[in-house]
Amino acid sequence: MRTFRSTFEIDALLRCVARRQLGLVTVAQANRIGADKHALARRRDAGALVPVFTNVMRLASVATTPPQRALAAGLAIDGATIAGTSAAIVHQLPLPARLVANPATEAVVTVGAQRIVRVDGIRAVRQTVEWPKHRWMSAYVTTPAATIVLLPRFVDDDIVERCLDHCLAHRLTTIEAIADVLQRVPASAVRRRKLLLTLINDRSSGVGHRSKLEQSVARWLQACGISGWQRNLKVDVGGGVRVEVDFGWPQDKIALEVSPFFTHGSRATQERDAERRRLLVSAGWRVVEATDADLQSARSFARVVAALTALLGEAGV
Questions:
Q1: d(CA 151, CA 185)
Q2: Which member of 196, 265, 286, 313 has the greatest number of CB atoms within 10 A?
Q3: How far apart are CA 25 and CA 44, in angstroms?
Q4: Residue in 231, 245, 163, 232 with CA at minimum distance from that of residue 200
Q5: pLDDT, position 3
Q6: Do 107 and 122 touch, CB atoms closer than 8 A?
Q7: Which of 289, 257, 210, 261 minimizes the C-alpha distance to 96?
Q8: How many other C-beta atoms lie within 10 A of the C-beta of residue 45?
Q9: Which long-range contacts (CB under 8 A, 24 or more apart) does 125-128 make?
Q10: Per-residue confidence (pLDDT) for residue 262, from 0 to 100
Q11: Sign (positive/negative) of CA torsion 211, 212, 217, 221?
Q12: Strand-by-strand arrangement of the 133-136 sheet
């Protein structure tokens, strides 16, 4: 026999459940705490609960976010795994804003090959293989390595490369883990497998995950007549601490940092990078940072060239 609970008790329990799920509550969870369909209907009519997907609601007091929508998709379909672009959002990969912020963009999950699922706003991809995944909140999400392998199904090649470099830069996964996923799943299950193999091969030489990008920067610097730099220069900033800079002019204490996708990094990564720059500045170095917008092409890199030219000119180079 179901225990009777007051309106205040039900509301408190709904908030408790939602607190662990980015403000979301499923109908099944609400039923278990004593909120039947009539109680939920009253709260929806009053504007306290807002439908997200079938059988998934959010508290109206909680703002909508892209990760919340990804989680809602994982909760909406029993046994589903958040995947594709939705998993990329969960892992904070640098997807274009049109895919992240657009509410019309379908959430993506994977389901078993025998299932046919149709839920408005969710793209359920049937899979014959079990992709590596882990628990996230109250749902499952593909691991960063599996997310990278699945991404070519949904986005362009350049976005796949950006996301791969972001994962490696922020140590979300490794080249070995991605290669292992590619080896474990059938080739027919991976779109643009050749692209992925090329990308991981380029980054497995030991030079570093940004080797290809840094090579482009080196070519752009040379084309503009800027020379005298050293790549991956280790700088002594005092106290026995050494900081590595991507391009450095040691005699003039000028550094160029190649920082793709900086604005998409985690708080911890941003704080770490800020501390590196603080140490360099304290040691008398001047730092120019090439961010995502600067690294699109030689033309967009012109702003960085101008800054370096001015600094090197002051130094008498």
A1: 15
A2: 196
A3: 12
A4: 163
A5: 61
A6: yes
A7: 261
A8: 9
A9: 125/83, 125/84, 125/153, 127/189, 128/186, 128/189
A10: 43
A11: positive
A12: 122-127, 107-112, 81-82, 139-142, 133-136
Whether 145 contacts 178, CB under 8 Å: yes
> Judging by DSSP bridges, how do beta strands 122-127 and 107-112 pair with one another?
parallel
For the record, the structure tokens of 317 come out as 């180079």
Contacts of 203 (CB under 8 A, 6+ apart): 164, 165, 168, 175, 209, 211, 212
Q: Of all residues in the chain, what percent are helix, strand and coil, respectively (each to 5)?
A: 45, 20, 35
Which amino acid appears at position 232 of this protein? N
The helix/strand/coil state of 301 is coil
Q: Are 305 and 226 in contact (CB under 8 A)?
A: yes
**Radius of gyration of the CA atoms of the chain, in A:** 24
Produce one character per residue of 76-104: b if its CB has 16 or more CB atoms within 10 Å, e if not.
Answer: bbeebbbbbbbbbbbbbbbbeeebbeeee
- Whether the Cβ atoms of residue 317 and residue 256 lie closer than 8 Å to each other: no
Name the residue type at position 80: A
Q: What is the pLDDT of residue 207?
A: 39
C-alpha 284/C-alpha 75 separation (Å) is: 52
Q: Which of 63, 50, 57, 73 is nearest to 121 (CA)?
A: 73
- Give the pairing of strands 49-53 and 24-26: unpaired
Per-10-residue mean pLDDT, the chain, length 317: 73 91 93 88 92 92 92 92 94 87 84 82 87 93 95 89 84 90 88 88 56 78 89 85 88 86 50 81 91 82 92 73
Structure token pair of residue 138: 């109250």
